[in-house]
Amino acid sequence: QVPLVESGGGLVQAGGSLRLSCVSSGRTFINDAMAWFRQAPGKQREFVSTINWSGTNTYYADSVKGRFTISRDNAKSTTYLQMNKLNTEDTAVYYCAARSGAPKSDSTEYYIWGQGAQVTVSS
Q1: Does the pLDDT value for residue 39 go beyond 80?
Q2: How far apart (Å, rounded) are the C-alpha atoms in residues 50 and 71?
Q3: How does residue 1 score in pLDDT terms, banded at 50, 70 and 90?
Q4: 117 close to 55: Cβ distance less than 8 angstroms
Q5: Which residues does 104 contact at the CB level (< 8 Å), separation at least 6?
Q6: Which of 95, 115, 94, 110 is CA-nearest to residue 28?
Q7: What is the pLDDT of residue 28?
Q8: What is the 3-state secondary structure (H, E, C) of the chain?
C-alpha cells in the first residue's frame, strides 16, 4: 500500500493555477506534519511548503510565498497545495512528504514520500 498518493499535476500555461492533492493512508496522518518539495531536472530537491498536524502553522519558500497555499483536511486525510500565478520556473516534479512532529524545511527530516506529480508550466 502506497502511503502517500498525489494527484492534480499536469500541464498549465504561465499565469494559470493547479491544485495538488496528497492522500495519506495509515493511522499516523493526524499526528504528521506534511510538506511539499519539488525537483526540476538537474536541480536539487527544493523545499516548497509545509504544514503542522492541525493546520494552524504554515511555512513557504520565498520563491512561492504569496502564490502557493498549503492546507489540509484531516477528515479526508488529504493535504493540498494550491498553486496560483504559475511560471515556467515552477516546472518540476512535486513530492508530498510526511514526518512525525513539527514541520521542517529539510527534506532529510521526512521519511514517507509520495511518488511525485509532474507539473509543467508552458510559456
Answers
A1: yes
A2: 9
A3: low
A4: no
A5: 33, 35, 50, 110
A6: 110
A7: 62
A8: CCCEEEECCEEEECCCCEEEEEEECCCCHHHEEEEEEEECCCCCCEEEEEECCCCCCEEECCCCCCCEEEEEEHHHCEEEEEECCCCHHHCEEEEEEEEECCCCCCHHHCCEECCCEEEEEEC
The residue length of the chain stands at: 123
C-beta neighbour count of 120 within 10 angstroms:
15
pLDDT band with cut points at 50, 70 and 90 for residue 3: confident
- What is the spatial distance between Cα 87 and Cα 24, in angstroms, rounded to a whole number? 28
- Determine phi and psi for 29, rounding to 5 degrees: -55, -40
Q: Determine contact, residues 116/6, Cβ cutoff 8 Å.
A: yes
> Mind listing the pLDDT tens digit for each residue in 63-99?
999 999 999 999 899 999 999 999 999 999 999 999 9
Q: Tell the residue number behind the cell numbers 499526528, with chain if given.
A: 31
CA distances (Å), origin 110, targets 1, 21, 30, 38, 95 = 18, 18, 16, 14, 11
